[in-house]
Each structure stands twice: as structure tokens, then as C-alpha cells.
Amino acid sequence: MFPIALTNPINRPVIRYAAGASLLVAVSMGFDWVLAFLLPVLSMSFLAPGGKPPGLKGGLFFVGSITIACFLGMTLAYSFLPMPPIHILVTFLLLFHIFYTRHAIFNPLVKVWLLVAILLIPNIALQSMVLAKVMAISLVWNAACAILLIWIIYLVFPLTPESQQSPTKGKSQDDTPGSGRNARFNTALTSTLVIMPVYLTFYFATIPNALLILVFIAILSMQPAFAKDWKVGKALIIGNIIGGLAAIIAYEILTVVPEFNYLILLVLLAGLVFGLFVFDESPMAAVFGMAFSTFLLIIGSVTGSDGDGAGGKVWSRVIQIMIAVVYAVSAFGLIAKFKSSNEKVL
Fold it and tell me: Could you report the per-residue pLDDT of 239-252, keeping only the tens digit for each?
């Protein structure tokens, strides 16, 4: 049944999705630079349903925007880190504007990279300014590698003529002068309020070994729709449990056959399995996409670890991601409930 499904022309994007993930993991884990494990996770949106390779202008803008974000992150670290009130205010305003902006070139993928740069670099600078510089350079390198590899993937697995047709454009929310702006403001404020308590916790408590929580909450903050329905939020939690369990199983297999080629084959297999659900056009497709991101994030962050400590890190990464998911779903849900109760009172 599984091989037959993949031979269906409709599922050719699934093969691109799985093969692309394998290439991204092969390059990131093969060279293993700082933050290399983020490359596959932050690049999969290009291969997801509706994803397309950026043009030359789009690719240059993508890398340029990440470079500017890293510069802003280093500016926050150098200029405002010793002054907590100003640093917190500037960070809040930057996050709010990232969420509020609705220009076409600032798509959700670019925003996620911007959030990671703004949130991660100052936190790393609290421990070492040198390491913060290395991470800023690494994020820019990740962005450049992402664009080059996505171009290669689409060169090998080009889009079909049908998939290249742009969908019919309707009136966007931004075209509505009043309610559109109010909705954007409320959504941006909600997402910013969800991130800030976690950011402040890391800022004042300095927890270097759990920064994955901050990164994953930044990714989840781009999906506030999960707060509108607890069932959807619960599905997200279940999806990430599935991704975490898949990563644990893959890691245990790798302990038996610790070969690089075997790692790539496991990622390819996982990409094919998850990809069939991601491209199924069902309401749960996004959940399985997030589950595969969880799988890639965990596998990528532990396969470069030193032998004995890697096993414990697998479970640690799973727990950290689940903390991030439960927090994000609960925080969005509480804010939505608070707004709803206020509206009833008014």
C-alpha cells in the first residue's frame, strides 16, 4: 500500500519533501557547524504544501533579512543587554513589529528566522559575546545554505506545471481598512505576549541548556490559530509526541547501526511516512508537518553529540519540546479565553 501510494503522480511532492529533508540533514550533519541542526527545520516550509523555490531576488532578500536580524540581535546584545528595562522594551517592540508586518516579502518563514535571531543571540551573549558572534554568523550561513539547497532540490525535483499556477487572489485581510488592522494588532500583541514571559525567564535566569524551548516557542508563535480550538491544540501536542517518539525510535536504531548513511536513510523513510500525511490536504496535515519538524529538530540536535551523553539528550530534547508545545497551546488558549470573557462583559 505504501509503495503504491508513492508511485501515484499526485504524491510526487512527497518524494521531493522526503528527499529534500534527507539532503538538508546530510549537509547540516555532515559539516556540523554551529546551529547546523536548525537548517532542516527552518527550511522545510519551502518544501511543504504550497511551498515554492524563491527566485534570485527572493533568495537574496531572505539572506539579507536574516543578516539584518542578526545585526539587530548583536546590537541588542552590545548596546542594551546591560540595561534590562531598555533591552526588554526594545525586544518587545521588535517582536511586535515582526508579527504585525504583513508585507508579502516578510512571509511566515522569514519571520521565524527573524524571531530566532532576535531571541537567541542576546541570550547567548549573556554567557559569551564571542559565542554570540559565532551564532550570528552561523545563522546567516544557515540562511545562505538553505536557499542554495532549496534551489538544488527544486532543480532535481521541479514543480509540475499545475503546481506552478498561482492560486486565485482574493481580498486579503489587509485590504480591509478597519477590522484588518485591528486583527493584525491583536494577533501581533497576542504572539508577543506569549513569547515575552519565556524570553524574560531565559534573560534573568540564564538557562543555556534549554534554549531549544525558546526556539520552538518562536516557531509555534507563528501559529496562533491553535488557540482558537482546544481540540486543535491537543492535536498539536499529540503530533509532537508522535514526532518525539519517532525521533527516539530512530535514535535507538542509530545506536545499533551508528552509520551516517543509515541516518540519512532513516530521515528519508520518516519524510516519506510523514509526507503522505502532510500532503493529504486534511485538517491534520499541519500537525504532521509540525511532528516531522520535531523529529528533525531532535535528531539533528543529538546526532552531533558525544556518545555517552547523546542518549540522555534525546529524552531531554523531547521533554523540552513538549514543554514548549504545552506552554504555547496553553498561553494562546488563556489569552483567547481572557479576550472572550472581556468581550462578554463589555
Answer: 878 888 898 888 88
